[in-house]
Design brief:
The protein is α+β, with helices and mostly antiparallel strands. It is about 40% helix and about 40% strand. The protein has 2 domains: about 1-30; about 30-150, Nuclear Transport Factor 2, Chain: A (Roll). It contains 4 helices and 6 strands; from the N terminus they run H-H-H-E-E-H-E-E-E-E. Strand 1 (about 60-65) and strand 2 (about 75) form a beta hairpin. Helix 2 (about 35-50) packs antiparallel against helix 3 (about 55-60).
Amino acid sequence: MKPLSLSLLAAMLLVSRLAGAQSSGASKTRETPETQIRRLEQEYVAARQAGDSAALARMLAPEFMSVASTGRVENRSYLLDHAGVTPSGDRITKMVIDSVNVHVLSPTEAVVVGRRVVTTTDSGNLRFMHVVAKRNGHWQLVAASATTIK
C-alpha cells in the first residue's frame, strides 16, 4: 500500500471512532436525570454487595458523608474500606432496593429516597436517603442516611 493510502485509511478509521464515540455519548445524554440516578443507585447496591471499593470510589464524591443506621457518621474512606459489610460489621450477602423515589432539584442536584433490604446474618430493612450531584457529567453520591424499619 502506498503511504497516501495508509494515511487515508488511518483518517477514515479515526473519523469512524469519533463518530461512534459521539453517538454512544449522545444516547446517554438523552436519558433523563432520573434514569441516570436510578442506574447509579443500582450500581451502588451491586458494588456494596460485591465489596467493590473501586466501583464505589467512582460513585462517591470526595466529600461524601453518611449517617449509618447505627447512628455512626461515616466518611468516604470508611465506606471504601468497609464496602462489603454493614455498619455492624456483618458481611452483605444480598442487597436490593425498591420503592425508590427520585426528586430532581436542579440539573445537577437530586435527592433519592427508597427502601433497602440487606441480607446478612442480621438481615434488615432500611429506609435510605441519598443526596446526589452531577459532577463532570456523572452523578455521584454526596451524602447518605439510613434508618432501620421495624
